[in-house]
Amino acid sequence: MAGTGIFTEILDGEVYKYYSDGEWKTSSSGKSVAIVNPATRKTQYKVQACTQEEVNKVMEMAKSAQKSWAKTPLWKRAELLHKAAAILKDNKAPIAESLVKEIAKPAKDSVTEVVRSGDLISYCAEEGVRILGEGKFLLSDSFPGNERTKYCLTSKIPLGVVLAIPPFNYPVNLAVSKIAPALIAGNSLVLKPPTQGAVSCLHMVHCFHLAGFPKGLISCITGKGSEIGDFLTMHPAVNCISFTGGDTGISISKKAGMIPLQMELGGKDACIVLEDADLDLVASNIIKGGFSYSGQRCTAVKVVLVMESVADELVEKVKAKVAKLTVGPPEENCDITAVVSESSANFIEGLVMDAKEKGATFCQEYKREGNLIWPLLLDNVRPDMRIAWEEPFGPVLPVLRISSVEEGINHCNASNFGLQGCVFTKDINKAMLISDAMETGTVQINSAPARGPDHFPFQGLKDSGIGSQGVTNSINLMTKVKTTVINLPTPSYSMGAGFISRL
Ligand code: G3H
What structural domains and CATH numbers belong to the chain? Predict the structure, then answer.
């Protein structure tokens, strides 16, 4: 159970502690932040409302711990990461339980998230020892006007303090996808979890604590965004920000200083369906892509653009599958569970009502109880409806019928987002042309959009993000290239002793 067994020390009465200087602490604010269970709409957990002074302390520790961590051999860093991964996986049950309670993720998917996170940490440790153990050697005479008098050695050095801000929908996985690359590369790490997801994050951080990372290297600060959000992101000690979430990321990027940013800010992933597509395959992928975790994934299929000639058949197939989706509590592994908050549910409802007023066809009756919204497929959506462009982040999926592939591509490219997209066709040549034409970070051919496997590059264009993720790209983003140039008094071209007389 969450907060028990090896996790007892992270709890103070009924409030979870924050993690600073290798210890679990109670904030001097004396205040806490309530975490509301999306399904019951009752307070499930409480976390510390940390102060700006506590943030300052954490940053100071992070700066000093990083200096010695950067001198820790790579294999030792990797060893500790492997240890943390094993502890995390061994304790998947209580962590998954907190995911169920604070973000209403179905129980099975919650366990998957924790296991996937352990695997990501281990993969990152292995990738890190390989790519950080290599550098480049360049010779000066490849550039015009130069003799071979300069040898340039390049290596990768850490940035310093990395600030990681994961989103509510993958609080554990999208936290470790930032923590592990930062640490293997020799950085220290300050984590600011989302409010909903904070308790899962605190449990995950305890696994790193138990693995034996040095004091101050990892910290986890909880609290109100209004109190410590800007203070953290604009803190002078921060050397890199890795953020996943909504358009808050745009304002963070405007306020952040001259530091590398890794941002993933959502998407309106289009699913383009051609006449020759395997419609059963498309329908299954629309269900998986559009409705898993109730559509609360940045990579969810968020608009279907189907050729008119096959639209009726596809809609019927999807409708039949929607009817089979189970709706209810995450504890019972229902496919559709409550969305994360009342304000999210209200926002989704606003999009649905707009579509209704403007004449979309409702394939199911719209139904909502509290934060629970029944899955809804909206057919005959037109570009003047908000749902054609906005991200519901809920179990509502619009279908736009198109008369040409160009119309589909144009709709996809007119979006301010550009995360992923997918195209279904049996013609690989057409698929490649469409993939090239779609202005998105990734295009999936004959499958729904997805970030994983977690070592694949993952990036968004336009408002969907800055930088690229995936294990290798994250390690590279969290390092800087350092070069040392050896200058020779005379050019040195080849082996042999002829030159010695010139010395
Ligand atoms: O919500 C954003 C995530 O990066 C999506 O990850 O494709 O594994 O669900 P996923």
Answer: 8-265+464-484 (3.40.605.10), 270-445 (3.40.309.10)
